[in-house]
Amino acid sequence: MTESPVIRPYRPEDRPALDEICVRTAHNGQDSRPFYADPSVFSDTFAAPYVHLEPELAFVLDDGAGRAVGYILGTADTVRFAERFRTEWLPLVADRHPEPSGPPRTPDESIAWLLHHPERMVVPELAAWPAHLHIDVLPAWQGCGHGRELMRTFLTALRDRGVPSVHLVMAVANKPARAFYDRMGFEEIAAPMDDSVVCLGRTTGHPDRL
């Protein structure tokens, strides 16, 4: 008999599933594979470094049979994470996704530029929201309350570590994601960002009320 879906801590054997989830939700919430020559640049930028550097803050939605079909991950300290990304993570993947020699000319190069510039994550206006997160759930598992449970789990973990607040950066074009974050109590933060993205934040208090 198949078990019910459950939120659980990330395990190293989940890594291939996390990479797949990231790639299949990276294009404004949709599958990135039709639009990128090597969509693994997404997971190497937005998923894998987190489970490599801060696995204790990574949680997955398990389908009940051991397979991850969603995740939430992030860092408790964005400034420190950006430093570790530069020194510990980037050397592992830099050759796989070379830094553009000039302004990015392709979609792949645009994400590779982000990979090679982790300092972009450190924005003075976000100092009051020291943590940040990424959350992705495969389409078939969306709309069932799993995202809410993932968010509740992550906020509780941050609160237990004494982290007061968290932020995220999302594509303006991803309207369903914005509606979800609004329901989760996130509010827009005035920060210097490209017009294609928006920054949202909230405190880690009262995750049980989500």
Automatic annotation (TrEMBL):
InterPro entries: Acyl_CoA_acyltransferase, Glycosyl_Hydrolase_84, GNAT_dom. CDD domains: NAT_SF. It comes from the Bacteria. Pfam families: Acetyltransf_1. Residues 5-205 form the N-acetyltransferase domain. This is N-acetyltransferase. It comes from Streptomyces virens.
